[in-house]
Write the structure tokens for this entry.
Amino acid sequence: MLIGVIKIKLTSTISILLLPLIYALVIGLALYLLKPIKFVGPKQSKVAEGIMVLFIGVLIAKLAVSSGQSIDTIIKMGPVLLIKEFGSLGSLLALPVGLLLGFRREVIGMTTSICREPDLGIIIDRYGFKSPETRGVLNVFIIGSIIGTAFSSLLSSICASVIPLHPYAYAMACGMGSASMNVAAVTPLMQLFPAMATDLEAFAGCSNLITFCLGIYLVIFVAIPIAEKIYSWFGPSDDGSGYGGSEVVEKSKYADKEDDGDKKLLNLDLSEGSVLSWGKLERWVVLLIIFSIIVSVGNYVGFQRPIMTTLIGMLLLSAISIVGMAIERIVNVNIPSLVYISLIGIILSIPQMPTSSIMSYYVSSIDLSVICTAFLAYVGIAIGNDWDKFVKMGWKGIIVTLFVIGGTFLLSAVIAQVSLLATGMI
């Protein structure tokens, strides 16, 4: 957070943004890979995996609180922007491309979303850190973080000049759930259509807000099941000799036994269906308090927000996360803890609830990017063990990433165009 955002200008409308969360991931990975450094090794990498899975809940809780606070805005925007959200499924158009390039179950993680921070958390929580699905989502996350902003800006300007869709449709398509991509994509539109600049900015902003709030649920309940079904039809079998890998789906559906063992290095026991105990709750509390302090300091350094206010907000998010994880283990009906965490966060933050003002005041002081930055530092350390597998994805990973972003943008624009025409807005 101390370094801040570095903007590299390529042209008058296209720039590459280097964000603090990228520095954190790179530094964490470097600590593992650099030979002179001895205090971060395989054991620390596996410990980071367990801690990271715990911190995902805080990230989802923050998104849930934002959803609750913005519920009136989401309702007022009407059906057009909500229908447009199904354009996010355009990322699945990259799935057959990934299969043709030789990827196996990595394509499920790579293509169920544009692979930003919340989506990263969903895949890790569902499949486990050591899974090929997580390698896939991390690969697109890293590549997208480096070139996604520049590519979305270029894509927006080319499409608006070549494909005859209404500027409003393109503006809504800019809302892909990434703040940097949103700004980068709408900027050339505002220059191409200066008379509509204010409206384009408003549509892009509201669209991104809705994707930001509701996108994770589309991934959980729609995109992942569709990707699994497509893979079961066309993906290679477990031995790579045939197609129709339904056995592979069941085998990889959640974290494998090795991954569960890694999570238990700290006795976190975050594996699905594990038994709840007071000792486990105590460990969760201690680790989340440490994480809250780290984020609070980062929030002060990066945004000069009061540390105590941020700390209280982080403790509220941590409490929501713990309650959600506890409910999953008590109820034990095969519903992920992220769903419980989301519901609790949304309900507590709805403006009509008495808890809304408290949640709004304290949680709003926390910038999401700081949570993501701290979270990705652990991701960087954790991927050290599997770095060779990431390197092997190489240029093929770049191609899939471009198709993921391009498919999401274009399908969103087409759906928005149809919705705007159907409602008489254009």
